[in-house]
Write a structure and sequence with these properties.
Blueprint: H1 2-18, H2 20-34, H3 37-58, H4 60-68, H5 90-95, E1 110-114, E2 124-128, H6 129-146, E3 153-158, H7 170-179, E4 181-185, H8 194-204, E5 207-212, H9 213-225, E6 233-239, H10 245-255, E7 259-263, E8 272-274, E9 281-282, E10 288-293, E11 304-310, E12 321-330, E13 341-346, E14 353-354, E15 360-361, H11 365-373, E16 377-386, E17 389-396, H12 403-417, E18 422-427, E19 442-444
Parallel strand pairs: 3-4, 3-5, 5-6, 6-7, 16-19, 17-18
Antiparallel strand pairs: 1-2, 7-8, 8-9, 9-13, 10-11, 11-12, 12-13, 14-15, 16-17
Helix pairs in contact: 1-2, 2-6, 3-4, 9-10, 11-12
Length: 450
């Protein structure tokens, strides 16, 4: 552990020398970590004013929007002026994809980030190198807020072997070694593979486990069934799905450690981290601004819709982006002396899929399948009517999606649920909503009253 801790610090120093963007990102984060609430707010104000000036000069979409709303760059003095900007929706991003791209930043200076759409609406965005570095290193800092320390192994419980690249670069292998990052496919946990997973966890201990809430719950269920214990797990971190209270209790009891969650979205990563089990989420304010707008017909106690502004992404600025999540944003001094927090965060609720043998598959298989296939859909939903029957409903961006692309979706589901599975396809926008009007990407009706 000490050796890997030294390696981590050495690699960080090397990254700062090799990459000016990494060096700048770490300077921003380190300054923010030591700043008072007022100093941190001044940092954010300067970043926002600079972003707006850049957007007006180089991004056609924002030049048009600002002219339409009577916003001149010189009139924007601080983050309070953000309320003058209109909300940016997923549909706006799709329609204005080209206009949202900065004319002075080429494709080679940014990466394309495609989400699987955990809210049911996949989207593609462009992220420049500085913003990507800020997200990456605020993520590692966030993990440290949660209890991870450099040198401590990380067991990653995400995706499946179908989504894991066969070819891994030397750089990625070195990074995984330094971080002690061990990948275990989340969608392939069953009574036969579980023992191997427990062996890996024991051999990698002491460690933290990171993964989908449903995959962590499945793993704890098999540990209970197989009477596996004596884990040396320091903490369990969940993301992408809501963590029900009974799941949290079971996972915590199984691994004998706290269970915390962190929050992000496909378009802007690293948005919030719990510092202890059940706590509010601390926002890494240096690189992102979160605010909320009221829901229609809401009561005073209900959460509001979250708007996200990435303060440094100049490749494709996202100002007041409506990402589909709900919560409440609390001011500095409420839950944290210098930072804003999310309290509460109403995450994305979905059912797990049921296999023929009665075991369950994480609902995160849905965005995983969309991400792997890059299916051009605005919105989607998987409905399991029977154990061997799933209906895939989708609102397509195109008039027609080839059968071969849809068959890829069916193939991924069958690989994890069995070849006897029938997958039905339905194009349209008639999705099933929850009683409170929320869109869920997976609805499981097998074995329930229909």
């Amino acid at each position: 552990m000490l050796f890997k801790k030294i390696l981590y610090r050495g690699a960080l120093k090397l990254e700062r020398i090799i990459s000016p963007d990494v060096n700048k990102a770490l300077e921003i984060l380190n300054k923010g970590e030591k700043a008072s609430a007022a100093e941190l707010q001044n940092m954010r104000n300067r970043a926002f004013v600079d972003l707006v000036s850049h957007a007006y000069k180089n991004v056609p979409y924002y030049r048009e929007v600002m002219d339409q709303h009577g916003i001149s760059p010189s009139s924007v003095q601080c983050l309070e002026d953000i309320s003058r900007f209109p909300v940016l929706t997923k549909e706006d991003i799709r329609k204005s994809k080209t206009k949202l791209r900065a004319a002075n930043i080429g494709d080679t200076d940014c990466c394309i980030r495609r989400s699987g759409g955990t809210t049911g609406e996949p989207i593609a965005t462009y992220v420049d190198r500085l913003s990507r570095a800020l997200e990456t290193y605020s993520f590692f800092r966030g993990l440290q807020w949660m209890g991870w320390k450099p040198g401590l192994s990380m067991i990653s419980l995400f995706g499946g072997s179908l989504g894991k690249s066969v070819k891994t670069s030397v750089r990625e292998k070195i990074k995984a070694f330094i971080l002690g990052d061990v990948f275990l496919p989340a969608f392939e946990i069953d009574e036969y593979t579980a023992s191997h997973y427990f062996d890996v966890i024991h051999k990698s201990s002491p460690c933290v486990i990171i993964g989908y809430a449903s995959a962590l719950f499945n793993l704890s269920t098999y540990a209970e069934q197989k009477r596996v214990s004596d884990f040396r797990v320091k903490a369990v971190f969940s993301t992408a799905e809501v963590m029900p209270a009974d799941w949290l209790k079971k996972i915590s009891n199984t691994f004998g450690c706290p269970v915390l969650s962190y929050y992000g979205c496909g378009e802007v990563n690293s948005l919030g981290y719990q510092y202890k089990q059940g706590s509010p989420y601390i926002i890494p304010d240096e690189h992102v601004h979160l605010e909320t707008i009221p829901l229609k017909n809401k009561s005073c106690d209900e959460s509001e819709e979250i708007l996200v502004t990435s303060l440094y992404n100049k490749a494709q600025p996202l100002i007041r982006y409506l990402n589909g999540d709900k919560g409440k944003i609390m001011a500095p001094g409420t839950n944290h002396p210098t930072r804003m927090t999310i309290d509460p965060l109403d995450g994305r609720t979905s059912d797990m899929l049921m296999r023929e043998d009665g075991t369950f598959l994480s609902s995160s298989i849905a965005p995983h399948a969309i991400f792997i296939t890059q299916l051009p859909v605005r919105r989607y939903q998987f409905i399991q009517w029977e154990k061997n029957l799933i209906e895939f409903r989708y609102d397509s961006e195109k008039d027609h999606i080839p059968h071969s692309s849809l068959n890829e979706i069916a193939g991924i589901l069958k690989a994890h649920m069995g070849n006897s599975l029938t997958v039905r396809f339905h194009q349209g926008d008639d999705f099933i909503l929850s009683p409170n009007g929320k869109h869920r990407i997976v609805i499981q009706k097998a074995g329930t009253d229909q």
